[in-house]
Amino acid sequence: MGPVSVCYVSQFFHPENVGVACWVPEQLARDGWDVRVLTGVPNYPTGVVPAGYDASRASREMVGGLPVRRTPLYPSHDDNAVKRIVNISSWALSSTWYGTGDIKDAGLAVVYSSPVTANLAPMWARIRYGVPYVTMIQDLWPDSVFASGFLAGGIVRRVAETLLGWFAKWSYRLSSHVTVLSPSMKDVLVARGVPPEKISLVYNWVDEDLFAPGAAPDPTLRQELGLRPDDFVVMYAGAMGQAQGLGVLLDGLARTASPMHLVMVGDGIDRANLEQRAGELGVADRVHFLGRRPMATMPRLLAAADLQVVCLADTPLFRVNMPSKVPSLLCAGHPILVVAAGDPADVVVGAAAGWSADPADPSAVAAALEEAAVAGPDSLRAMGERGRALYETQMSAAIGGARLGEILRAARRTKKGRGTR
C-alpha cells in the first residue's frame, strides 16, 4: 500500500519564513505521507512579492520535493486594517476557486488555521465533496484580531467580530478534528461549543537543528558589555511591544539587590520607552539593548546568559496561548523565567524547568530573579535539562508529527461524514 495523500492548506509557505507553517508538511512527508501544498503567493512579512512570483496569477512549482499550488492574493502586511482584511479574504477566495480540486484529489486536508479564513477552501470541499479536514488552530479568532489592535471599536468591529466568530464556529464544526497548541485553549473551545472529544493538543515544534542543546556560549558578549565572568546575566530575546509588557521586567530588576544584568535582544515599538524607563529607574548601567541579531547567531548568544525570560502582558488570549519562545528555549535546554500568566507559566513550572512571576507584580519578578541568581550553575543546568526532556517527550517534531498523523488517519476513516457539532 502506497503513502496516504493529504493536502496541506496554509496561506504561508516557503520562501516565507513562518516556522511551523512550513515545517508541518515537511514532517508529514518525512513520516511517509504523500503531501501536496495549497498556499498563497509569498509576500510575508514585508508585503512585497519576491522576484519570480506574480500576486495576480495562480501557479504550480516544486518546493523541497513537495508539489505546491499557489493562488493569487492582495499582498499586504502593514498596519492598515482594510488592506490586511483584503489580504486574507482574497487568498481565502482564490484558494477556494483554484485549490478545491487539489483538496478533492487528495481526499484529505489539514489546515494551518492562522488566519482562520484559511479554512474556506477545505470547508467548501467538505460541503461539496465530503472531503474531511483537520484544523490546526494557531490562535483564537476573532480574539487575536482585536488583541493585536486592529479594529479597536465601533460598528466595523462589531460586524467583524460577529462575522469572524460565526466563520470560526462553522470551520470547527465542519472539521473532522481540531488541534490546539496549549492545554487551556481546549477549555476555551469547549466553552464555545466544540465537543471535547474533537480536540487534541499538538504543541508547535521548533527548528531542532538551530535550537539543539549544548551550543557554545558567545565569548564576546560579556566583553562587549564590560561584564565580569561571574556576573549573573538575564536575557530577553524577542519583540519589544505592548503585548510583551516588558516594563514589569525592568521594574523587577530595579528591586533586586544581587549584582545582575539584563540583556535585551531585539526591537519593537516599545524599545525607546523601555530605554527611557531603565534610566528613570537608575538601572541603565545594568540593562543592555543589543538590537536585532541574525537568527543563526542566537543559539550562542542565548548560551552566554544564565537565565532566559519569556514576558507577556496578562490578557485572556495570552493566558491560553503558547508563544514560540517557550518551546524554543525548552528545546535548547535553558532555564526560564516566565513573566506571564496561564499556560506558558504552567508548562515551564510544571516541568520544574524554571520560575514564573505575576506579570502585574514587579516584586514577584524581583523575587524570582533573586532566587535564580542564587540557585547556582548546577541547579540552573538541571532545570534546563528537565525542560529539554519535556520538549523531547511532548513537543518535538517527531511527537507532533506522529500525533497529527494519527488524527489525520482517523479523519480519513470518516470521509463519508459531514463533520460533527
Describe this structure in words.
The protein has 421 residues and is of the alpha/beta class. Helix content is 43%, strand content 17%. The chain is built from 16 helices and 14 strands. An eight-stranded mixed beta sheet has the order 3-4-2-1-5-6-7-8, sandwiched between helices. Strands 11-10-9-12-13-14 form a six-stranded parallel beta sheet, sandwiched between helices. Helix 8 (247-254) links the parallel strand 9 and strand 10. Mean pLDDT is 93; it is low at 416-421.
Quick recap:
Helices cover 43% and strands 17% of the residues. By secondary structure, it is an alpha/beta fold.
Summarize the SSE layout with pairings:
Layout: E1 5-9, H1 20-30, E2 34-40, E3 59-63, E4 66-71, H2 81-106, E5 109-113, H3 120-129, E6 133-137, H4 143-147, H5 154-174, E7 177-180, H6 183-191, E8 199-201, H7 221-225, E9 232-237, H8 247-254, E10 260-265, H9 271-281, E11 287-291, H10 298-303, E12 307-311, H11 316-319, H12 325-332, E13 336-339, H13 343-350, E14 354-357, H14 362-373, H15 377-395, H16 397-413
Parallel strand pairs: 1-2, 1-5, 2-4, 5-6, 6-7, 7-8, 9-10, 9-12, 10-11, 12-13, 13-14
Antiparallel strand pairs: 3-4
What shape does the CA trace take? globular
Instruction: Assign a percent range to the helix content.
Output: 40-55%
**What's the SSE pattern?**
EHEEEHEHEHHEHEHEHEHEHEHHEHEHHH
Mean pLDDT: 93
Helical stretch tally: 16
In the predicted model, the low-confidence regions spanning at least 5 consecutive residues are 416-421
Looking across the biggest beta sheet, what order are the strands in?
3-4-2-1-5-6-7-8
Q: State the distance separating the first and last CA atoms.
A: 33 Å
Instruction: Give the total of beta strands.
Output: 14
User: What is the structural class?
Assistant: alpha/beta
Sheet with most strands:
8 strands, mixed
Radius of gyration, Cα only, in angstroms?
Answer: 22 Å
| Strand composition percent | 15-25%
